[in-house]
Amino acid sequence: ENLDAAGLVDPALRRAAVAEMGKAALEAPAIWLRPLGGVAGLVVEARGWNHVEEGMKRGRGVIIATPHLGCWEIVGQYVASRMPITVMYRPPKIRALEAVMRAGRSRGAAMTSVPADTAGVRAMLKALRRGEAIGVLPDQVPGVGEGEWVPFFGRPAYTMTLLARISEKTGAPVFLCLAERLPRGQGYRFSAEPMPAAQASESPLRRLNRAIEQMILRRPEQYLWAYNRYKVPAGVQPPAAL
Q1: Residue 240 CA: distances (Å) to CA of 5, 164, 179, 209, 236
Q2: Average pLDDT, stretch 206-215?
């Protein structure tokens, strides 16, 4: 349904997207249970890391924005192998996975996981003030009062305001990052790029969704199309288009 709405109707792409979903389900526990050095070593190519390094020189920390594309778990681990990072998480629907997930996303001083609540936001602001990195899933559907309805592949999607607010408040630059799965288990290709320049009269949230769309279209089969990006969170007024 989401692929069709985005105009991506190729049956081969649909089959590939299902296969990539299977890979995502199988790779996450292996990544969480492996030592940090072993996980980071799965990245066999890195592109654009110089952008992150340049951003760090500003002394305001950096924001690593990773959509549900490729292996987003690898992105945080790779960054943690190079600099401290604080990542935000929501408890998984399968409660038995929470302890494993938290352990895999907590790597001592290198990687800290914080809940998606007020305390977690404070922890991320402190990390940026220390000149460290924070990690955010920018296409995660936020709760009531934490988002706005903005087009995403032509449909209104409740889009988080947190990333734009933090960047504006702290001056921390935002980098879109991806860990692309390479074929036949050959590892991952990491890439980082600055947020693209805003178009005329473009809001920060529309700019964010446009940047995510452009990144997804490079490897559409590796996006988590089964994620309910267009859901109406409890307590949120649906958009007029719905």
Answers
A1: 18, 24, 36, 19, 12
A2: 97
